[in-house]
Design goal:
alpha/beta, 55% helix, 11% strand, ATP binding, single chain, DNAC/IstB-like
Length: 269
């Protein structure tokens, strides 16, 4: 192809926002010619490459917009280390049909038992399914809501939060909330009730949530909405991170034969 048509083609493909076409058309043309493919199959292969690349970029954009603290998949979760987790339920949730039904998830368990990893994996699965996701810790969310209220942009922030198909609120219960903070957080839950899914992680059982929100009435109303359509993941056991640290320390802390009062065999020289 002469230089002028190539320049025009590159310009048109850029205007049409078909970067993969522009990058791959010449190479694919040579491959299809060598394989004896007709024009329709050539265009089909280019279109497939464009769609694959477009979907990859869309997934990457959704992951960035979710603001995950780390990108973790369920494939990297060690279910064997935490046998109390309902793995079939987690696999079912990874299909993301609960989001289409506007149902919620609550992951309860001690610190370090993998709750955040689980919801991050489910959040990643939702991004890969084409669904919008937002991630925030409970303390950060309350802080941002109070700032937004003071700066007269609370309604805009609430609208943004309501727009996510899945909103992940991590570490609920780590920090007690002020009366205003608890009421603002309750509004987030209330506005999403039967309109969008929420995934919550907490280190506290339900009967201790009053300590966080400071009001039995408010806590009861929140739990009533949150648990109406809910999947509960209870994670019993010791901290996975702590156990991993202990495993790493054991060889270094193992006493030598001399410490035990035994005479080791002389080492070869």
């Amino acid at each position: 192809m002469s230089e002028q048509p190539q320049l025009l083609l590159a310009h048109h493909l850029k205007s049409l926002k078909l970067p993969t076409f522009s990058r791959e058309y010449d190479k694919v043309a040579q491959q299809c010619a060598a394989e004896g493919m007709d024009y329709a199959r050539y265009l089909l292969r280019l279109a497939e490459l464009e769609l694959i690349e477009r979907e990859r970029r869309m997934v990457e954009r959704r992951i960035r917009e979710a603001k995950f603290p780390a990108v973790k998949s369920l494939d990297s979760f060690d279910f064997r280390a935490l046998p109390s987790i309902n793995k079939p339920l987690v696999n079912e949730l990874a299909r993301c049909e609960y989001i289409l039904r506007r149902e919620n998830i609550i992951a309860l368990g001690n610190s370090g038992t993998g709750k955040t990893h689980l919801v991050l994996g489910l959040g990643l699965a939702a991004c890969q399914k084409g669904l919008s996701v937002g991630f925030v810790t409970a303390a950060s969310l309350v802080h941002e809501l109070m700032e937004a209220r003071d700066e007269k942009r609370l309604l805009r922030m609430q609208k943004q939060l309501a727009g996510y198909k899945l909103l992940i609120i991590d570490e609920l219960g780590f920090v007690p909330l002020s009366k205003v903070g608890a009421e603002l957080l309750f509004e987030v839950f209330s506005q999403r009730y039967e309109r969008g899914s929420i995934a919550v992680t907490s280190n506290l059982p339900f009967d201790e949530w009053t300590e966080v929100f400071g009001s039995e009435r408010l806590t009861g109303a929140l739990l009533d909405r949150l648990t109406h359509h809910v999947h509960i993941l209870e994670i019993n056991g010791d901290s996975y991170r702590l156990n991993q640290s202990k495993m790493k320390l054991r060889p270094a802390q193992r006493p030598s034969l001399e410490d035990n009062g035994q005479n080791p065999e002389p080492s070869p020289r």
